[in-house]
Amino acid sequence: MAKIKHHNFLNTVHEVFTDAKQEGVLHLYAEGNSFSGRKIKVKNRNLFHFGTTGYLGLEQDQRLKKAAIRAIENYGTQFPLSKSYISNPLYKELEELITQMYQAPIIITKNSTLGHIGVIPSAVDDDDVIILDHQVHWSVQNAAKMLKTRSVPIEMIRHNNLEMLEDKLKKYTHSKKHIWYMADGIYSMYGDFAPVNNLMELGKQYPQLRFYFDDVHGMSWVGKNGTGYVLSQLGELPSNVLLFGTLSKTFGASGALLACSDIELYKKIKTFGGPLTFSAQLEPASVAAAIASAKIHLSKDIYGLQDELKERIDCFNEFLAKTDLPLIDHNESPVFYIGTGMPKTGYNFVNRLMKEGFYVNLGIFPAVPVKNTGVRITISRHNQKEEIKALVAAMEYHYPKALAETRTTPERVFHAFNLQPKVLSEKVLNVDLQIEIKETIGAVDKKLWNNLMKGQGVYDWDGLNFLENVFQDNNRKEYNWAFRYVFIKDENEKIILATFLTHALWKDDMLAKEKVSLAIEVERNEDPYHLTSMVVSMGSLFTEGDHLYWDGKHPKAKGAMNTLIRLLEDLQLDLDAKMIVLRDFERETPWHRNLQGNGFIRVQMPDTCMVDLKGVVNLQDFLSKLSSRNRKHYRKDIRPYLEKVNVKLVKKATSSEIVQIKKLYGNVHDNNQGLNTFSFPEKLFDHMNQHSLWEFIMVRPSEQLETLIGVMLCYKNSGQVYVPAFIGMDYAYRNDFSTYRLLLLMTIERAIALGFSKIDMGMTASFEKKKLGAQVIKKYAYLQTADNYTLELLGIMEGQ
Prior knowledge:
Elements: H1 9-22, E1 30-31, E2 39-42, E3 45-49, H2 62-75, H3 91-102, E4 106-109, H4 112-123, E5 129-133, H5 138-145, E6 154-157, H6 162-172, E7 179-184, H7 196-205, E8 209-214, H8 229-234, E9 241-246, E10 256-260, H9 263-271, H10 275-278, H11 284-297, H12 301-321, E11 335-341, H13 343-356, E12 358-359, E13 361-363, E14 373-378, H14 385-405, H15 410-416, E15 434-438, H16 446-453, H17 461-470, E16 482-489, E17 495-507, H18 514-524, E18 532-538, E19 548-550, H19 557-575, E20 579-585, H20 592-597, E21 601-604, E22 608-612, H21 619-624, H22 628-637, H23 639-642, E23 645-650, H24 655-670, H25 683-690, E24 694-701, E25 710-717, E26 721-729, H26 734-737, H27 739-754, E27 758-763, H28 766-770, E28 775-777, E29 780-785, H29 789-798
Parallel strand pairs: 3-12, 5-6, 5-7, 7-8, 8-9, 18-20, 26-27
Antiparallel strand pairs: 1-2, 2-3, 4-10, 9-10, 11-14, 13-14, 15-16, 16-17, 17-18, 17-19, 20-29, 21-29, 22-27, 22-28, 23-24, 24-25, 25-26
Protein name: Aminotransferase class I/II-fold pyridoxal phosphate-dependent enzyme
Pfam family, one: Aminotran_1_2
InterPro entries: Acyl_CoA_acyltransferase, Aminotransferase_I/II_large, AON_synthase_class-II, BioF2-like_GNAT_dom, PyrdxlP-dep_Trfase, PyrdxlP-dep_Trfase_major, PyrdxlP-dep_Trfase_small
């Protein structure tokens, strides 16, 4: 299979957010002339507010409001000058109060995102290494990535996986000055905690280990003086910990803070920390509000506020415990996450709750994996017991309805989060549709299959029979594929949908940049299966083209679509696959909205190429129909080389030629880390040589007829389509003989001679193929992954 283009993260986020916006759950505007914190007006509805991150409600405290108003009256709306020159008159008092809270030197930043960008590049040296928790906040990851330009290695571990962390520590303990582990104190989506005490024990074993905690969601509602979760576990701030807190969210004002007890490191960061030097300082109103809040934090009042919030958290937990709702993490934080699994179920559930009078947040990609969509509920002091109870009742009532309306089940949701369902339910399938699955093409009627697939690639009946023989009973697991042939029919046995699937081992970096694959291949010298996963895919790694027959005009076409999606997910579960891949869609496909709502993300594949030979009599006729520019290309870049080579069509190669063909194919495979797949079993070429529908176009130098320098491995699909499936080349001769271009030309000539009306030129090298008359068609794939870890790990590696 040709390589899928490098995943454009921003495009995917844009598509997911646009979908959520169209569903009315994202990019909303609050309405009204005032705001109390208890209720929020959205779409002309007054809703109880369960989406705030102001857990203690201090943003509505009169002491903060009055302080902010006085500051504006005394100092204006802003103090437009860099803090490096002079801070506004209120800053000194704020810094003194925050220092008193933390009992450690502090630095005030405009916000946490700018703070991370300022602190991390200053704190981390060139001979250090960074290890990121997979779920550490985006702002930390983004700031860490800046260190790639200084060649600082960045690693990633699965969330809270201390075994993985220790493996990384052992890897770097003898080569790096400091090993930085970066994590959240409280994670913003699920509300779970970092294992702070266990991490400190690791710090004792590995003296180079330093910690960078983003504890903005742990601030104020827990800990002495409201200094947050991390410090509540540490007691006091060690020199090997950098701790980020916030002056916004629960603190009620604006800005962020860094606490650092390492005096030399503190001076280094404060003296010059990028945005800490050049960005604008906090407005006087924000500083004054923060001062008022700091005074509350330094008084006994903070503990009364914490106790009031804890009562509400306990109340919510008590009500939830009586339900079967899938709470993803049971803890004592004010953040709760109810999993819905698929985005469309999340949209439905959020809208239902809004109609009932409750505002909650939707947790969606990239904050969580697409299939880990859910509802994030935050509890604050504004919430009263009666509305907390009413929210739980509304969720208990509407959750099963949201599942049913989006044709999903509790099992599907619980599986997405690796949880065990409390209640088993019937599988939601379309009872009006029949599913037929065959495990071998031999069990499928040949005429029926060929009629459905219309001769598009190496997957007519004979082609698939060939592939089954090649990719079974091999001695390595990557060479053994399981095939499934799927038919979805209506009550009258009419086929609405048909496709074939493979279950095979893929390299995770197949979608990554070449330099990432090169780095991973070094690791594979020790572990051949490092970063590999079993994948359920429509089509296979050997085939290209539209692998799907779908009667979109059938009245039950959408039902068949949903049935296939559920079938794929059941197969993924049964076969323990990590990813589902649906391939070769055009951009404007009616499948898009439904696939995205079911947890698939769209990525662009390389353009595919097709040559139309209808009405073409011979090669000269074909060339005469090219554009003047492309005819010039032929005359200049191809024709002069025809006299230098011997071209031979071979239907059955000699044993020595097969040896050469294997070597030439191996050259192309090994030279193309941009398409990093496992090689194919050696018996593939022997089977090709014995098969009547495979043939080889061979190129040799006219003066070295014993030397094979290029070969095109071609398949004749049902007498309809010519498929140059793979190529082999000796790169030492490529430029001197224009080998690739000659093979393309000879492929076209051979297809014309056979009387075929079409050549499926496949993907990659579309520029060269276009110059020989190929039509270029954009194609897309849809991926559904078990989690984001591998994709994000590869994303981290791409910048190094």
